Amino acid sequence: MVFSGIPFLFYFFPLFLLIYFISPGKLKNIVILIFSLIFYAWGEPIYISLLLLSSVVDYMNGRMLEKFDGQRGKQRIFLIISVVVNLGLMGIFKYATLFITSINSVFGTHIKDPKLALPLGISFFTFQTMSYSIDVYRKNVKAEHNFLDYMCYVSMFPQLVAGPIVRYEDVARELNHRTMSLDKVSDGTARFLMGLFKKVLLANQIGSLWDKALAASDRSFAFAWLGLLAFTFQIYFDFSGYSDMAIGMGKIMGFNYPENFNYPYICKSVTDFWRRWHMTLSTWFRDYVYIPLGGNRKGMKRQLLNLMIVWGLTGFWHGASWNYLLWGLYYGIILIIEKLTKLPEKLPVWLDHIMSLIIVMLGWMIFAVEDIKKLGKYATQVLGFGAKGFADSTFFYQLRNYGVIILFCALLSMPVYQKLRAYGEKNKKAGDVLTVCGVLAGCVLTVVCIAMLVADSYNPFLYFRF
Q1: Three-state SS for 114?
Q2: pLDDT-derived band of residue 2, with 50, 70 and 90 as boundaries?
Q3: 318 in active site
Q4: DSSP single-letter state for residue 258
Q5: Is 0.70 surpassed by the pTM of this model?
Q6: DSSP code of 198?
Q7: Worst-scoring range by mean pLDDT, 192-196, 259-263, 332-336, 414-418?
Q8: Which positions ≥6 away from 227 have C-beta within 8 Å?
Q9: d(CA 330, CA 140)
Q10: Is the per-residue pLDDT at 462 higher than 70?
Q11: Domain ranges, ordered by start, for the chain
Q12: What is the 3 state secondary structure string of 435-447?
């Protein structure tokens, strides 16, 4: 069940809101938990057991860490249990096939592949439960004593299967002391609809251009780059749209989830890009991997090694395919070059921006094409080798078909809405006009979204497979 699907929009979420708002305060967490488990079971009923196992292990770890407060030796045992169980679950279900097929290919063995289905959201909920145990160990948060409240935190359906990665400290107080108001419901609804528009009207539409470019047997240089531009926009509007919907639903329910995107394509460097893209994942790896490894405290050589380790793990976290590891190492190398040369500080801002976007787009090529042979072919065509000329009829045809949506994607990947809102806050009359126009536009776009969802079966969420 995806947020932009008819079952969720017209049945699941309205029913949830009805029951949630009429339930007494003490029962609201139970309502969230029940609906979250139904949401998860909709696609993967058998894997609820994994969600429960991960939750039980870290809930018990939290209690044991509290019990043995001051006894660091015993506490480390339970911390290790958390790390081993969570990474073990993710390793078995996410990477078993990759490792088995790789071993069979290299050594000529015939180890049987169990072909385990990837549990929805395992990359996200294992990180959440593991971070809880680590934070209790560090005394950043107190252990949760109510298991149902803890399960509510882990399984909360808005952010369960694709983030943002919500740490326990982000919602600890709100689990039992959150406030709900008409303003929050209004803001949350607007944020949810914004995400829905991004997903349905932009990501889905531009994504079909990327599919055509990827499926083409031969591409001109220009068409290869046009396809890459399409994926660059698709993954941003797909994932940031999902995050907007999750944050909006959380706000309606009385929770304040952390922001996950901050207009990454206006970046002035690749380092700046990663301060703006999937921010909850970047900060997770910073706080739980990079800093514990020593960060930048043990000299430049160790810092560079730590960066490569973090980015190798970041790449591998995204998927059970070698291209993701290559993608992570690619960024590790780029970020090290930026750190050593300080090139972004020496070049004009406009040139920094263009170079950063080209680097990011090439990174998305590595990310998107899982088959290494196909990746190699696409890369040579993007670099101008083996391409079918500079620009062919296919390029011009697709440019005519998708030119308008590309312009909209480019415009809306910049903080246009924020600037209009800021202007409206300074100028009351203009603000009133913008508010009316926004409401009318929202109503029209909602109708268009629903019509497109009913008529079109192309409605993937890219990050569901991670």
Answers
A1: coil
A2: confident
A3: yes
A4: P
A5: yes
A6: I
A7: 414-418
A8: 209, 210, 212, 213, 214, 216, 219
A9: 33
A10: no
A11: 6-178, 184-282+340-353+375-465
A12: HHHHHHHHHHHHH
